[in-house]
């Protein structure tokens, strides 16, 4: 499939010679594009089905609060595991082998979800989370390896193509996997997600020869003593967990919260501990310390943003399932299809935003990073203020129109384009030299913290589909956006030479 998207061209800097390229980019980009597209197809398809399956009478028939808690903790875990996923590639296998292992684990996870048993369901979720953490941290790194350093003029375009692959998979998944899961059989839907990952893994293994040789390198391999120490510590912690849960289980006290609460607390504490450890590092010079102080503002803002944004797949989706009229011109569609709205809008509007920032920059009017973050927070708050309208309609005993929910996803997408790409960029620019390879994992921890907060609220029994809590979150985001905007000059000063 990927080969049909390639064409012959002259290799830059080598007159007269030809090589296969992918729209003018290294041939290996086709391999990574297709791998990520199929992996995202499997991930977003499963994600679109997950909360609906948890509350469905033919599924696990849980309450909306329990479904939201599980969904949020699962997302939190995926992004939390991106940090050790990067460490594993850096110290043990290297990016190329780590991604292959990740693909196998994800596929096995989806197959486990496809088994008609509640006992294996959470094991399947765990496997998908582990595999996604391993893959997420490393496949983007391998895209970077295809280019001749940060000054290669094709680099930004290559990452743009890669981003399109992500959104193509995310767009198609709810339409295919969601339809099969909701209308025919939940477990067949999860099996289709496994098939998607299998296709991605096959594509990756067949095209791996086109990847950069740098992707095979283990940058800082563990010494023999470090390997032994790591294995000892891992075995110790695993034994502690097994003994603890065995005692809880055999004593008859086990409930799902015994699993969810520790993960949620870890999702809140680990981001704080990682940021604090970097901030306290005496090896950082004054400029790096100042940039980290500024970065804390962006990190907290991002955590608030993702806390609300990711509820588009849980709180808003569950509302659509129970209280919305999911029809267009009289034609009814599956609830999971709402999850295709964001990726198609991303593909439509991302080029517009890229052009807009460049046009403003040429005129010297491009907003600062802090201002863009403030805009993102205000927009994500506005999406939940908009959510109040369908909530009021449902409280009046009527079904809310589908376009209300499409409007919520539209506002959230505009907010995402204002904050997310900017956050990725500023993370790489502000990373202290000592932590250059780890800072992207730190950025993902903002998602972890936001989703862990949602999970904790749900575990505590808070109904996130109530007007009061939706209003509170909207106000929180608006206030956070206002705070970032008010202190933008201070943040810009702390950023030093980063613009």
UniProtKB/TrEMBL annotation:
One of its GO terms (cellular component) is plasma membrane. Coiled coil: none annotated. It is found in: Cell membrane; Membrane. The lineage of its organism: Bacteria, Bacillati, Actinomycetota, Actinomycetes, Kitasatosporales. GO terms for molecular function: dipeptide transmembrane transporter activity; peptide:proton symporter activity; tripeptide transmembrane transporter activity. It comes from the Bacteria. Pfam families: PTR2. It comes from Streptomyces mangrovisoli. The chain crosses the membrane at residues 44-63, 69-89, 98-115, 121-139, 160-180, 186-206, 235-252, 258-278, 290-309, 341-361, 373-394, 400-419, 440-462, 468-487. This is MFS transporter. The keyword Transport applies. One of its GO terms (biological process) is tripeptide transmembrane transport. It is a multi-pass membrane protein. Belongs to the major facilitator superfamily. Proton-dependent oligopeptide transporter (POT/PTR) (TC 2.A.17) family. Keywords: Cell membrane, Membrane, Transmembrane, Transmembrane helix, Transport. SUPFAM superfamilies: MFS general substrate transporter.
């Amino acid at each position: 499939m990927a080969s049909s998207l390639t064409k012959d061209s002259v290799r830059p800097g080598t007159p007269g010679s030809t090589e296969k390229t992918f729209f003018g980019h290294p041939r290996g980009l086709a391999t990574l594009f297709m791998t990520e597209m199929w992996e995202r197809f499997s991930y977003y398809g499963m994600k679109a089905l997950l909360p609906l399956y948890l509350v469905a009478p033919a599924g696990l028939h849980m309450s909306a609060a329990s479904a939201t808690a599980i969904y949020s903790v699962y997302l939190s875990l995926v992004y939390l595991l991106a940090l050790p996923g990067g460490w594993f590639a850096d110290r043990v296998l290297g990016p190329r082998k780590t991604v292959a292992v990740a693909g196998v684990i994800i596929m096995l996870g989806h197959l486990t979800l496809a088994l008609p048993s509640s006992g294996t369901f959470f094991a399947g979720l765990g496997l998908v989370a582990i595999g996604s953490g391993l893959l997420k941290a490393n496949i983007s790194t391998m895209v970077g390896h295809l280019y001749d350093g940060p000054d290669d003029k094709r680099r930004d375009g290559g990452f743009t193509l890669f981003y399109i692959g992500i959104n193509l998979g995310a767009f198609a998944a709810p339409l295919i996997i969601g339809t099969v899961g909701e209308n025919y059989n939940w477990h067949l839907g999860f099996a289709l997600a496994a098939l998607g990952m299998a296709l991605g893994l096959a594509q990756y293994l067949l095209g791996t020869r086109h990847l950069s040789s740098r992707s095979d390198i283990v940058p800082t391999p563990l010494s023999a003593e470090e390997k032994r120490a790591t294995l000892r510590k891992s075995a110790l912690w695993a034994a502690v967990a097994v003994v603890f849960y065995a005692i809880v289980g055999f004593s008859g006290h086990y409930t799902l919260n015994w699993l969810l609460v520790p993960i949620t607390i870890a999702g809140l504490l680990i981001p704080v501990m990682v940021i604090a450890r970097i901030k306290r590092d005496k090896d950082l010079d004054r400029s790096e310390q100042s940039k980290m102080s500024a970065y804390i503002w962006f990190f907290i803002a991002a955590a608030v943003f993702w806390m609300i944004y990711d509820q588009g797949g849980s709180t808003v989706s569950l509302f659509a399932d129970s209280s919305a009229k999911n029809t267009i011109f009289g034609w009814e569609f599956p609830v999971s299809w709402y999850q295709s709205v964001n990726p198609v809008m991303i593909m439509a509007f991302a080029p517009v935003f890229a052009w807009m920032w460049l046009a403003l920059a040429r005129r010297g009017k491009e907003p600062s990073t802090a201002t863009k973050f403030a805009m993102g927070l205000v927009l994500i708050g506005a999406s939940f203020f908009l959510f109040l309208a369908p909530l009021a309609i449902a409280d009046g005993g009527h079904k809310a129109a589908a376009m209300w929910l499409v409007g919520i996803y539209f506002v959230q997408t505009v907010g995402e384009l204002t904050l997310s790409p900017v956050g990725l960029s500023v993370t790489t620019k502000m990373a202290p030299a000592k932590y250059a390879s780890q800072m992207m994992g730190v950025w993902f921890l903002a998602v972890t913290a936001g989703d862990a907060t949602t999970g904790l609220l749900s575990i505590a029994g808070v109904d996130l589909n109530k007007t009061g809590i939706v209003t509170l979150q909207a106000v929180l985001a608006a206030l956070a956006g206002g705070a970032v905007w008010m202190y933008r000059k201070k943040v810009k000063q702390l950023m030093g030479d980063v613009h």
